Amino acid sequence: MKPFKKYLLVMPIILCSTGPKSDNTSDTGMQNKVNRRGSQALIDYVGRITGSYNLDMGVQVYIDTTIGIRYEFTVEDVSENVLSHIAIFYKFSNPTQSVEYDFVRHKSSLIKYGGSSDSNPDVYVIGQETLDSFDCTHLQHGGDTKEISDFWMSPKVPGFSKLVNSLRNISPALPSMFLSSTIFNWGGLVKWTIRDLSESGTTVNLEMHLFTADTNVILKPKVFDVPTN
Questions:
Q1: Which residues contact 107 (CB under 8 A, 6 or more apart)?
Q2: Which domain holds residue 127?
Q3: What is the pLDDT of residues 76-101, one digit of tens each?
Q4: DSSP 3-state of 9
Q5: pTM (2 decimals)?
Q6: Count of domains in the chain?
Q7: Residue 229 lies in a domain
Q8: 102 or 9, which is more confident
């Protein structure tokens, strides 16, 4: 699982999940009502890691353009045992800090970032494709390396405008928290794959795709608060 934790932690605003299936430690406080404020979104992705591992995974992002972002991911084995369940909390009111909370260990910690993000990655347009009714631009990063990432982006993904607004509010003091916004020139994320060839010659694959994108929800402010237990 280690080869992919780094990717999950540096993409906290474009990936989401259906959430944990068995530990029930996440209190989202979500209400299925019409969002009158129009500032919130919940976008869900599900995925799988195969190759050296066989794991199910999901990532959630809760966005409120007036409060902040909560990025949450889970990793489970084929028996639905939770191997990892971590959330990252970022508030615009405290722009130079983000907090990681481990739901398995019930511990929180400030995130320390080393170095800077890949601010000008080589992203190449592969072509145009239709995925799940979305007209997408297929992008690739790292095509001549052992680690290849492919992104399918569409401007029609619900909540994309809120995501962009949140990006604008992220403090530059946290440069390596996010992947370069270059890929957002083509829209929101519909599908993401990674092929990682290790030094031992084994290949690990990650594939994640859009499950739901909902801008018709109301999220309570406590959703963006770090748990205290």
A1: 101
A2: 2-224
A3: 998 999 999 999 998 888 877 889 99
A4: helix
A5: 0.75
A6: 1
A7: no
A8: 102
